[in-house]
Amino acid sequence: MMRKTKLLLTLILIATSFVMTRPACADGAAELYAVAASQYARKDWEAAIVAFDRFLYDYPDHSLTGALLFYRGEALIQLEDFADARKSYQDFLQRVPTHDNRTQAEFRVAECYYLTHDLEAAQTQFETFITAHPDHALYAHALPYLGEIALADQDYDMAEQLFRKAKAAAPSLAMQGEAELGLARTLRDSGQLHAARTAYRAALKQELTEAHDAKFELGVLEYRLGEHRVAVEHLTEVAQAGDRHSDIAKLWIAKAYYEVRDWPQAEQRLQELAQEEKLSQYRDEIDYLSARIRLEQGETSEGLTQLEQLLANHPASPWCDEALFYLAEAAVVTGDLDKATTTAKRLIVEYPQREATPQAVRLVVRKRLEREEYAQANELLISPGIDEVAPEMEKTAAAWSFELPYLRGVARLGGGDTNQAMRHLEAAVVATDEPQQQGSAYYALGLAADRSGEDGDAARHFAKYLEVSPSGAEASASRLLLASSLARIGQLEDAKTTYAQVDRALCETRLYWLTTRRLAETALKAGDKPWAGELFRKLTQDGNPEEFVKAGVAGLSWVQLDAASDETSTAAIEQLIEKDPTSTLIPAVLSARAQVLLQRKQASDALTIYQQIYRDYPESDAAPAAMLSAAQLLNQRQEYGRAAELYRLLIQAPSKDLQRDDLHYHLGWALHDQGSAEAAAEQWRIICENYPQSQLWSDAAYRRAEYLLTAQQPAEAKLLLQQIVDSGDAQVAPHATYLLGQIAVGQSDWEAVATQMAKLAEGNNGEELQIMASFWHAESLFHQHKFSEASKLFNEVEALTRGRELAWNSTVALRRAQLAAHLGDWDEALRLAELAAVSHPDFEQRFELDYLRGRCLARQANFAGARRAYQRVIDSRLGGASETAAMAQWMIGETYFHQKNYQSAIQAYSRVAALYDFPRWKAGSLLQIGKCYEISRQWDKAQTYYDEVSAGYPETFFAGEAQQRLSVVRQRRETAGAKTTERR
Q1: Residue 270: φ, ψ to 5°
Q2: How far apart are alpha carbons 884 and 848 in whole angstroms?
Q3: Which keywords belong to this entry (predicted)?
Q4: Distance CA 128, CA 122 (A)
Q5: Relative to the CA of 461, which of 281, 366, 476, 613 has its CA 20 to 30 Å away?
Q6: What does the pLDDT read at residue 16?
């Protein structure tokens, strides 16, 4: 309206100018020009355009063509063909470099861009215009255009500046009013509603062509400012004027009455408007407001029905989200949370960026949380799109950025997912600067940390709550829980101070007593028995809930457990039993008391208590452990039968806290100590066969293997021991390997002994076991005649055992001496043998040392000394009947034989044959006697002894030599007989 009025005023001037412009001479062009001018002057715009276009077509190069283009544009403006008009103006400016209307044409080009909605080009042209023509009359007309472009671009600061300039430059009151109205609209759209109100009122005081528009807009503005009665006054005037705003003004009047809760007035007007065809586009809003009025007047069913109809009849209505919100609210009120949740989800999906969506979600979720329906609350809170709040809804977006993670955190916390709860709650703290909101989040964070056992974090969060919201609703609870958290992180003095500041009257009763009990238990665990006792006694006060009285009595019994006086502790326990005879704490208290008695070496009293537990409280969790402790105490008292009986009872009625394999193991030892080896082995067998994954399997298998060896079942024992070795048990496998080696020793399988014992030289198997294994490894090498390797290993063993009293030290000394002899170092062998005799005077195998000494002395040709040494072997109590004694006797004969004292040799050899039943040495002694007779040329006797060896001991080493000697003796007898005949 404002822009068209300006066009018409300008056109009158232009038309006068045009009519006054006449061609100098009459010709075809002049006549056509005159026709066009006449039609233009009569405002016959279509005919004028036809004439203009005919002229331009017939006389494109005529001198009047340029000016005519300008007037053609003016005519097109009146026909609202702004695009073609702009082209005419641009053609004019291009063809006519100097003309009185150039400035007007430049203005028209910008104006046409504006009217064809090419605001960017319009802005450029208008800015160029005002820069080039600051003193032109159209300058004041260009400023409002630029103001409106800035307003359309929401550049409110620029728009305000331009409208104020336009107002100052306006050449008339009417244009001042138009500029003031533009300013008012700018202030309104930028949210400066009070300033906008002032500008509207100022505009309405001017000669304003859009007065009714301004009055309507002011009425709506007053509505937005909450001045509903004032709004009704302005809007009533508009409604009565009967212009284009009249009907919509009536709707705003109804809305104003709605806002002041004048339900009859509002309802009456809405009912009237519902029949207006002109307001059909507002029918959804009318239906919505009517439904709300029904709800507000208590007609809930009718109101909800109308809202449902609104959703069905107007699914694209901007009021659908509000309708859904009130349907969700009604479902919450009636307790139909499933329906409320469904409605809230619909809001999230269909209207994610409407204010009603977070409001509905908040309403439903809080009700779910109130009912402790945490999973359902969380399900709604993680719906896709729930985070989307329109940025322009600043307050709602800011509130939701806190409330959404806060509600998610509370729902997760209620559902037990403390980690996720803390993550959401920490996000909530960051999202707000409002102390009360931060306090709520810190309190919930404290609860989450408390439940997850993060006591330090709990203390920090509760303290933070008190810092940001010291007088908040949860201040007393935070202080109470802070005290509890401080106690659990060891800050007992701070906990005492904080607890003393708690206002009990402001705390929820149950929370207060629960936390007091927890504090008491923490203090007791920390060893602060005086404070623990004080708190427990507080719990026992008259009037307290029974559960806390009982907890207090139980706590006092714990406090008195290790009282110096047994009577004090016993009295406390008896009080607990009297006050709460069915308390599940009694067995635990009794168990703890028994432990105290054990520490005081009062095992008998402890046994009595353990027996009381499993006798009087057989169904308690403590009963199995008490029976086990009693069995162990009986075992220590060597009452193995009674202990075994308890172990059997435990096996028959297993407890989740006791392992059956462990019970079989203990029963096995009780039976073993009782002397029932076979019964004990049966327990080891049960573990081996039924509990292959047990930690006790290897040890049980080892014990069973030991039993099998004593039962003469080495094959089964070896199989079990090999399984232990294959299991890789670091503790038992080395011992199993050693026992396998020992079995091989018993079977004289020296190669197997070496294999098993060598394994134990590797790894960390314990020094003692490694020394023993090294000894038997060396011994196996000795028996395999690997004398060099054996000597080296025995030397290592001797170095390791030097200074230790070990049973086989003397054997090591003997073997070292024997090996020196085997390796040909007879002097060293003699030295070591004599050293061993001195170092081990009680050595049971001393005769072996004497035998070795005899051999060494014989090698030194000290035959007399050798015979004395051999004789000690023969005279030995332990060795006199041994093979070594037979060998020593044989060697005595050898010393005489080497000294050619054949008669003494025969006597010595004869003692071997007569006194010892060792075939090898009997054969050897008979052979040597034969040799003595052979040397003495007593062929018959020599043959007799050789025959006896050959016939009586054919499998001995000496039988072959006896055959050889027989052949020689026969030859010599024949030779000797021939010579005798010759002499005869």
Answers
A1: -65, -40
A2: 7
A3: Repeat, Signal, TPR repeat
A4: 10
A5: 366
A6: 36
Question: Could you tell me which of 860, 913, 865, 920 has the C-alpha nearest to residue 889?
Answer: 913
Q: What would the two tokens of residue 685 be? A: 């067998």
User: In this structure, which amino acid lies at residue 287?
Assistant: D
Q: What is the dihedral of CA 623, 628, 629, 633, to 10 degrees?
A: 140
Crossing angle for the helix pair 228-241 and 211-224, to the nearest 10 degrees: 150
For residue 450, which phi and psi values (nearest 5 degrees)? -60, -45
DSSP structure string for 354-379: STHHHHHHHHHHHHHHHTT-HHHHHH
Structure tokens at 93: 């400016």
Q: Where are the alpha helices (DSSP H) in 351-474?
A: 356-370, 374-381, 394-414, 418-430, 435-451, 455-468
Report pLDDT for 563. 66
Q: What is the pTM of this model?
A: 0.53
Residue 143 domain-assigned (yes or no): no
pLDDT tens for residues 134-159? 999 999 999 999 999 999 999 999 99
Q: How far apart are the first and last CA of the chain?
A: 186
2-25 as b/e, with b when 16 or more CB fall inside 10 Å?
A: beeebeeebbeeebeebeeeebee
CA quadruple 147, 150, 155, 158: dihedral sign: negative
Distance from C-alpha of 27 to C-alpha of 8, rounded to nearest angstrom: 32
Low-confidence residues of the chain: pLDDT under 50: 1-22, 24-26, 980-984
Q: Report the Cα 281 to chain-centroid distance in Å.
A: 57
Residue 697 domain flag: no
- Which residues have CB under 8 Å from 92's CB, separation 6+? 66, 67, 69, 70, 73, 99, 101, 105
Q: Is residue 4 part of a domain?
A: yes
What tokens does 922 get? 């009997």
Task: Say what the pLDDT of residue 930 is.
Answer: 94
The two tokens of residue 329 are: 């609210």
Query: What pLDDT, on the 0 to 100 scale, is given for residue 6?
Result: 43
> Can you give the pLDDT at residue 866?
94
What total of structural domains would you count in the chain? 1
491: left (phi over 0), alpha (psi -120 to 50) or beta: beta
Q: What pLDDT is attached to residue 565?
A: 67
Report pLDDT digits (tens) over 192-222.
Answer: 999 999 999 999 988 888 888 999 999 999 9
Residue pair 454/419 in contact by the 8 Å Cβ criterion: no
Distance, in Å, from the CA atom of 780 to the CA atom of 40, rounded to the nearest integer, reads 138
Candidates 950, 952, 972, 975; CA nearest to 963 is: 950
Angle between helices 173-189 and 139-152 (to 10 degrees): 10
Q: Which residues contact 608 (CB under 8 A, 6 or more apart)?
A: none
CB 643 within 8 A of CB 670: yes
Give the pLDDT confidence score for residue 694 in this predicted structure: 86
Cβ-based neighbours of 966, under 8 Å, separated by 6 or more: 943, 946, 947, 950
Q: How many residues does the chain have?
A: 984
* Rounded (10°) angle between helices 337-350 and 356-370: 150
Q: Is residue 97 part of a domain?
A: yes
Confirm if 931 and 965 have CB atoms less than 8 A apart: yes
Nearest alpha carbon to residue 559 among 584, 538, 580, 583: 538
Identify the three-state secondary structure at position 567: helix
**Model pLDDT, residue 983:** 40
User: What is the domain extent for residue 39?
Assistant: 1-117
CATH number of residue 83's parent domain: 1.25.40.10
